[in-house]
């Protein structure tokens, strides 16, 4: 694991893993969509709208997963000052933001026919919106600062402060009286969902997770290359200045 | 045709938004990756390379190690005093009998 922290070795690993991971994403997404539309029966309460859950729930899980990755990487940036930790945090933010956006929009589209409204300011929905705003804030902070090291440290502090929102999102449905239903998959007494609906949900969750990892690896490679390009351009400018002098 | 019931528009809209968002994300990330690769290749074509790129590659596990001298081919140290090339690289063992110079 430590040897993979070397950016050059990490790039070699990405080169080897990306084709296999791409194939895995295509297979899992194909299987997941087939199960979601052609195998899963309508729910006895939600009817056909249960099919929205097969994208809403995995997207919400990955929204939390993405921020957890950023918070862990922020620790790596602040404690060990490892350049790959900063790269991992920076590149996870747009992916996490996209999955949060998907969770919010698909949740609203499910809420209208089921609850009669697109939005309520309950604890779960509001804390997810706060998560989305945190992602946007982190992206803006990285974009606003020219020097990657300074931007990384500032973003790491913001990311760690914002990490308090993760347990709030997870336990909001237990701590407060919300319109959003409580957890129905990861429970101490087991899932309350029928296996005919749980299977497509898990396959789609696996597909979304594989997609997240794939995109994160490619984005990390692009960021490492961007920093190399930046360093080489600075060398080019320095050489030109020396030649003029 | 798949019958999605009275709420088909909500289901299709949810999948449509997801498709568009994921497609935009994939295009942005893969496009950025290709752009950075192109920029780096362009700079290297101009002769601007990283310092580490100029260094020789470190030995890997695949590199064939130098052959060890077999017992049969080992010359008698007492008689000839000569060493095989591989044996020359080895440090003298403590307490080993010195060969005559």
Task: Report on the architecture of this protein.
- The complex is a heterodimer of chains A (245) and B (101).
- With 245 residues, chain A is an all-alpha fold.
- Chain A has one domain (3-182, 198-244).
- Chain A contains 7 helices and no strands.
- In chain A, helix 2 (50-80) packs parallel to helix 7 (195-244), helix 4 packs antiparallel against helix 5 and helix 4 (123-144) runs antiparallel to helix 6 (165-175).
- With 101 residues, chain B is mainly alpha-helical.
- Chain B has a domain at 25-50.
- Chain B is built from 4 helices and no strands.
- Chain B is rod-shaped.
- The termini of chain B are far apart.
- The chains are: A mainly alpha (245), B mainly alpha (101).
* SS summary, helix count of chain B: 4
The percentage helix of chain A is over 70%
The separation of the N and C termini of chain B measures: 95 Å
> Which spans of chain A of ≥5 residues are poorly predicted at pLDDT below 50?
none
Structurally, how many domains make up the residues of chain A?
Answer: 1
Q: What is the average per-residue confidence, as pLDDT of chain A, rounded to a whole number?
A: 91
Helix content of chain B: 40-55%
| Tally of helical runs of chain A | 7
Largest sheet of chain A: none
Structural class of chain A: mainly alpha
Largest interchain contact = A-B, 39 and 35 residues
Strand content of chain A: under 5%
The total beta strand count of chain B reads 0
Identify the overall geometry of chain B: rod-shaped
Order of helices and strands of chain B: HHHH
- Shape category of chain A: globular
Give average pLDDT of chain B, whole number: 69
Class inferred from helices and paired strands of chain B: mainly alpha
Main β-sheet description of chain B: none
Kindly provide the radius of gyration of chain A, computed on alpha-carbon positions and rounded to a whole number of angstroms.
21 Å
Terminal residue distance of chain A = 46 Å
């Amino acid at each position: 694991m430590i040897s993979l922290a070397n950016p050059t070795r990490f790039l070699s690993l990405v080169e080897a893993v990306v084709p296999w991971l791409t194939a895995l994403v295509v297979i899992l997404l194909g299987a997941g969509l087939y199960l979601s539309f052609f195998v899963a029966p309508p729910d006895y309460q939600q009817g056909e709208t249960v099919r929205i859950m097969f994208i809403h729930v995995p997207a919400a899980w990955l929204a939390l997963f993405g921020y957890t990755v950023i918070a862990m990487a922020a620790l790596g940036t602040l404690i060990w000052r490892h350049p790959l930790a900063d790269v991992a945090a920076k590149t996870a933010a747009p992916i996490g933001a996209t999955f949060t956006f998907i969770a919010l929009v698909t949740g609203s589209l499910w809420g209208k026919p089921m609850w009669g409204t697109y939005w309520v300011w309950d604890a779960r929905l509001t804390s997810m919106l706060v998560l989305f705003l945190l992602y946007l804030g982190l992206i803006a902070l990285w974009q606003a600062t020219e020097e990657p090291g300074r931007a990384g440290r500032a973003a790491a502090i913001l990311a760690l402060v914002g990490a308090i929102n993760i347990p709030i999102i997870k336990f909001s449905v237990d701590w407060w009286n919300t319109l959003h239903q409580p957890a129905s998959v990861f429970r101490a007494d087991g899932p309350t969902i029928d296996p005919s609906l749980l299977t497509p949900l898990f396959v789609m969750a696996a597909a979304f997770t594989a997609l997240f990892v794939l995109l994160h690896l490619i984005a990390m490679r692009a960021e490492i290359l961007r920093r190399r390009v930046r360093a080489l351009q600075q060398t080019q400018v320095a050489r030109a200045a020396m030649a003029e002098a | 045709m798949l019958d999605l019931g009275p709420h088909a528009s909500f289901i299709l809209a949810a999948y449509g938004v997801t498709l568009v968002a994921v497609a935009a994300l994939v295009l942005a990330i893969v496009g950025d990756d290709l752009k950075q690769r192109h920029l780096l290749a362009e700079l290297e074509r101009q002769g601007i390379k990283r310092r580490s790129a100029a260094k020789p590659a470190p030995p890997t596990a695949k590199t064939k190690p130098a052959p060890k001298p077999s017992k049969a081919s080992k010359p008698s140290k007492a008689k000839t005093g000569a060493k095989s090339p591989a044996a020359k690289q080895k440090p003298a063992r403590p307490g080993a009998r010195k060969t005559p110079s």
